[in-house]
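Fold sample X.
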Amino acid sequence: LAQDKEQDRVENAGKVMQEILNIPDGIPKSVLDKANCVVILPSVLKFSFGFGSSFGRGVMTCRGGEMFRGPWSAPTMMALEGASAGLQIGGNATDFVLLLMNPRSASSILTSKVKIGGDATAAAGPVGRAASAETDVTMRAEILSYSRARGLFAGISLSASTLRADNGANKNLYGKEVSAKAIVFNRAVPAPPCAKDLLTSLEKASPVNENKN
């Protein structure tokens, strides 16, 4: 069933997020606390370059409401397309986590597709407990990206990839037409049970938005 497939994807995203939040030298709390939205793309398999479209699917949750100040929202399904050549990872499945640091880029992704590094400035995210969110790169970047492959966790550039809401998958998950924007800004649907681990881990790790933008 299409709905089961999307529910599995949300559950996998929750597992990935929990594991990444538990990595000692993972995403610095000071960085996560400034993120308006988090995109998790679990188990993206080998990208191919120059031939057709590379593809990853996952979920995004944002701090709810127009100003991204509320609790983490029900998930909206997302798709990542056309990844950059920096991502030649072989046949290993790779998990990606993207942090949307700027309200403008977060809003753009909810309504249209966004080219990472083009429409929205992007950088490899800083890692480690001591890493500061105040560096020039992180202060300026609208999207910070991370990857995990073969147990290794690192900031990685996803420039030239395109990120968009997958509204077909949202329809499969929620059983009706519902836009990414309505899910995040209007709380048009309650969070499904499959999102419990994802939302619980984010609420625990970063309950308040410290972003002053």
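Fold sample Y, listed below.
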Amino acid sequence: KLHAERLQDLCPKLGRRLGLSEREQADLALLARVHDVGKVGIPDSILFKRGTLSGEERTIMQQHPEKGYRIASSSPDLAHIARLVLCHHERWDGQGYPLGLKGDNIPLECRILALVDAYDAMISNRPYRMAMSQQQALAEIKRCAGTQFDPQLAEEFIQMIRETNPQDFLSESTAGH
């Protein structure tokens, strides 16, 4: 499965656990599919760079939520989630972008997407690094709960993944570290 497809599965699944309505789950699936639409305005040399981005390149990359917001706002099918596209890189501690929103001021859908997106990125191979195991990725989410991620959502997400794939966590306590 592709990254966007995995997000379209996991985001509404977490939303359902949190009591989101069918409509909110559908919007969450749509957000999962189109949240990076603004990357069409980012040069391929930055999008597919193998090494670390320079400060200038990072600044350009961080413009994609605003570009996405403008694209979504002008689309009849996406206008209702345009603000969610804008806010998908905000962080629980207020250190995200572009608005620097903090805590519950970040839309719930964006807090859900941030978790699921980070998890999927960590367990996937990228041009600049190999994939982590599920256990490593969940440990990283736990470590970043309260800074990058909503701590309650992080706990619920970790529980959901463990329940979804219990066989992947059976040897966890016996694994050699």
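Sample Y note: The CA atoms of residues 135 and 172 lie 8 Å apart.
Also: Residues 172-177 have pLDDT under 50 and may be disordered.
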